[in-house]
Amino acid sequence: MPLRRALTGIQPSGVPHIGNLKGMIEPAVQLQETHEPFYFIASYHALTTTKDPQLLREYQLEAATSFLAFGLDPGVAALFLQQDVPEVCELSWILACHVNTGVLERAHAYKAARDLGREINLGTFSYPVLMAADILLYDSHAVPVGKDQKQHVEMARDMAAGFNHRYGADIFVLPEPLIREEVATVPGLDGRKMSKSYGNTIPLFLPPKKLRKLVMKVTTDSKGVDEPKDPEACNVFALYKLFADEADQEALAGRYRAGGMGYGHAKQELFERMDAFLEGPRARYSELQAEPDRVDAVLAQGAAKARRVARSTIERVRSATGLSLAR
Ligand code: ADP
Ligand code: TRP
């Protein structure tokens, strides 16, 4: 039986952070053991908000390099830029002709842009349609994402089911979001969801000194050193859990509850864990940064593989809808 396919994307809209790592990059890299991975840099999606060519170029390379630094094997996975498979725009249009605007008005990306008072361009409004095209173009079964993307993946699934129903054939695979419940949503420095759009992130490849400085900025309540504290209500502890095994989590939780430990101490523990974990990927990241041609070659090879699959899906869709004269 052919391997089930895993697909995910990351927007090159800022420097990748701990939320991206734990919510998506890590699970995606693990899936290469069991699935056929197609992972891409969602540059068209980023263009809905980023209008700076120099930054967009930089962020695309950073996102691709991050996947590789955390162990993505380009011999196994197709890693590519979204725009290198232009078939995605064709599929996006075809899907758009089958979606009611009412559905799109309920989408998170659109609602978030509205709540932030951002301009709502047509790309922002049709964001979930392009995302559905990304997913359906590659016959993806599993879509590893953070919890915030669950709704978008479900919309892709609904679009696929609607399309299959209308055209009377199994044209699209129905995708499933794959969400790590124990991670769910990684909090940022201010306790809200860690996100590039909130400016509250801990970037992945900071030198240790800068990393420590940021960790010290994680917000806590104002309990004094002697007071007992609730680990489950603390952002520092929520981040610590992502890097420590259960025994160490229990030990630190005990010290929270007992009193006599200040938040500064918990932050130092968190910094040491994070720094030890990030040390290896940080070194691989700098090595790869010094060899941009190597990253370019990985992206070109990934795009060629992705495009072969995309062509065959588009042929199927053209034939089903009557866009192709061949029956
Ligand atoms: P951002 O919100 O910072 O712009 P993206 O939208 O590019 O991040 O997200 C890329 C992937 O990382 C998505 O699968 C998303 O769900 C995941 N992700 C982003 N932030 C978090 C977070 N704070 N916790 C868990 N997963 C996250
Ligand atoms: N919208 C996703 C995000 O902001 C990125 C993305 C674009 C994506 N297309 C995708 C994720 C397809 C999974 C599958 O995080």
What does this molecule look like?
The protein has 2 domains: 5-185 and 291-321, Rossmann fold; 205-286, Tyrosyl-Transfer RNA Synthetase (Orthogonal Bundle). Helices cover 54% and strands 7% of the residues. It has 14 helices and 5 strands. The strands form 2 sheets. It has a 3-stranded parallel sheet with strand order 1-2-3. A two-stranded parallel ribbon has the order 4-5. Helix 11 crosses helix 13. The longest helix is centred in the C-terminal third of the chain and has 30 residues, at 292-321. The radius of gyration is 21 Å and the shape is globular. The chain starts with a strand and ends in a 6-residue tail after the last helix. The mean pLDDT is 96. Bound molecules: adenosine-5'-diphosphate and tryptophan. Adenosine-5'-diphosphate binds at residues 10-11, 13, 19-20, 22-24, 145-146, 148-149, 183, 185-186, 193-197.
Shape: globular
CATH class descriptor name of the largest domain: Alpha Beta
Query: Rg from C-alpha positions?
Result: 21 Å
Order of helices and strands: EHEHHEHHHHHEHEHHHHH
What is the correct CATH architecture of the largest domain?
A: 3-Layer(aba) Sandwich
Structural class category: mainly alpha
The overall pLDDT, averaged over residues, is: 96
The number of domains: 2
Low-confidence stretches: none
Report how far the terminal alpha carbons are from each other.
28 Å
Number of strands: 5
Main beta sheet, described?
3 strands, parallel
Question: Would you tell me which CATH topology of the largest domain applies?
Answer: Rossmann fold
CATH superfamily of the largest domain: HUPs
User: Spatial order of the strands in the main sheet?
Assistant: 1-2-3
